[in-house]
Amino acid sequence: MSETEVELDGERQSLVLLRAGDSLRAWLNICPHAGRRLDWAPGKFLVDQGRLVCAAHGASFELGAGVCVAGPCRGASLTAVAVAVDAA
Ligand code: FES
């Protein structure tokens, strides 16, 4: 799991990147609970039992669809961002 910054719709945004084999997933680095960053320091994420844990208040997200499965925003989802791996 890593973090990168990109320009989206004219704004600088931090993304959470998760690569597994040839697949790459990305979400905005914004927690649906209170809008805080998910990492505790830039690019430093808490992962517990395969779930991403928000550093602010402990919401826990499964890493398939990015749904919160425990914590203060249970049932809410991270915002997915379409990305692709360029083999060039
Ligand atoms: S901002 Fe993430 S759990 Fe509160």
TrEMBL record:
<keyword id="KW-0411">Iron-sulfur</keyword>
<dbReference type="InterPro" id="IPR036922">
    <property type="entry name" value="Rieske_2Fe-2S_sf"/>
</dbReference>
<feature type="domain" description="Rieske">
    <location>
        <begin position="1"/>
        <end position="88"/>
    </location>
</feature>
<dbReference type="GO" id="GO:0051537">
    <property type="term" value="F:2 iron, 2 sulfur cluster binding"/>
</dbReference>
<dbReference type="GO" id="GO:0046872">
    <property type="term" value="F:metal ion binding"/>
</dbReference>
<keyword id="KW-0001">2Fe-2S</keyword>
<keyword id="KW-0479">Metal-binding</keyword>
<dbReference type="InterPro" id="IPR017941">
    <property type="entry name" value="Rieske_2Fe-2S"/>
</dbReference>
<protein>
    <recommendedName>
        <fullName>Rieske domain-containing protein</fullName>
    </recommendedName>
</protein>
<keyword id="KW-0408">Iron</keyword>
<dbReference type="Pfam" id="PF00355">
    <property type="entry name" value="Rieske"/>
</dbReference>
